[in-house]
Amino acid sequence: MRAVDIIMKKRSGEELSREEIEFLIGGYVAGTIPDYQVSAWAMAVYFQGMTPAETGVLTEVMLKSGNVIDLSGISGPFVDKHSTGGVGDKTSLILAPLVASLGIKDPMMSGRALGHTGGTLDKLESIPGYRTNLTVEEFREIIQKDGFAMTGQTKEIAPADRLLYALRDVTATVESIPLITASILSKKVAEGAEGLVFDVKYGSGAFMKDPEDGEKLARSLVNTGAAMGKRIIALLTDMNEPLGNMMGNFLEVEESLDCLEGKGPKDLMEVTLELAARMVVLGGKAKTAQEGRAMCEAALASGKPRELFLNNVRSQGGNPDQLLELRGRYRSPFSMEIRAPRSGYISHIDAYQIGLAGVHLGVGRNRTEDVVSPTAGIQFHKRYGDLVQSGDIVMTVWGKSDQSLKDAKPLIEGALQIQDSKPALRTLIRKEIAS
Fold first, then answer.
1. Would you tell me which CATH number, out of the four given (3.90.25.10, 1.20.970.10, 1.20.950.20, 3.40.50.300), belongs to the domain 3-49?
2. Is 370 a catalytic residue?
3. Looking at residue 183, what is its pLDDT?
4. What is the mean pLDDT of residues 414-431?
5. pTM score, whole prediction
6. Per the residue annotation, which of 10, 80, 81, 82 is the catalytic one?
7. Which of 54, 84, 179, 308 has CA atoms 20 to 30 A from the CA of 262?
8. Choosing from 83, 183, 315, 332, which is the catalytic residue?
9. CATH number assigned to the domain covering 79-324
10. Of 105, 168, 188, 365, catalytic
11. 187 catalytic, yes or no?
12. Residue 367 scores a pLDDT above 80
């Protein structure tokens, strides 16, 4: 078997066999098949696609390239959530303790910010002392104690994905639904979760710009995951605007605490509760999403999820008392205000431009080795649909330096649109797709 023949076969639009996929991916991980041949294959997949069977095999092969976390000995059920990425998306920090308070264990492996999208690990690491590089044994112990743990991907988990993701990033082959599906599921299944809820985002600040493409990805994730024996639900959610009133690492930790205290912004609470409700259903604690949501709302009112979150901060090396003391005060000394250039209604705050501004400010990164700022970010005082007068403060912005503010300002001002009439209500959740 030769890699070049596999590339030619896929270039012609033919279906690859299990043996061919195993040969290619196994050889890449072992170092016997070079980057340039796998790059050519990835580009062929980008243009020709893969059948559901091929996507399933690729996911399985990537999963088996590493270890699967053994959660035996810990009572379940185990359910996790994954977002395809956005701006201001801090739902993971709220969901994990929320569902844990209802008896559902969440073994959460998360990623870092890259490009315009934020990263859960960067947000957590803005809490002084918080560790996200847990060993597998620490991960298990904290799940057993707190009901959830949040860590980064270890070298032992899906090494094929780590290699292939880095290659796709520099060869313009990221936006391939089969490759995205295999990348996400190989990592998520390796966590040991029995059920998975996917928040598949579409819009300017999302990976998938069009809802139709978002739905294709959601269906691919649901169908491939179900074929692997997992219970899957996907929600298709709007990411044309930033989610919540805060964008930034520590700022989003603060807003997550607000939500755990029942004081979060309406859009963030809506998306979080709908995702959590599906996790409760997959965990067998509720029969319908409506019942699951009611349970989540009651749990938030009890204060238990907030207590579990603070317990987890302590378990993973942070100091919950220090976290609460820093709340509202942990800010960069470099700041500016963005004011409304005219009177009217805010009709759009473009999530993509805000995310790019975040990279300049120090919230995100262009390269994996870039260092992020815990205290940079944006607070939105006015949001979509709000009436503003000329000169009103719409945003407060914090950056890692004065220069970062200057670099970000044109993007932030360009993201803000104001019109004379009140815009139509946004539909945050477009569709549910289940296995």
1. 1.20.970.10
2. no
3. 92
4. 97
5. 0.93
6. 82
7. 84
8. 183
9. 3.40.1030.10
10. 168
11. yes
12. no
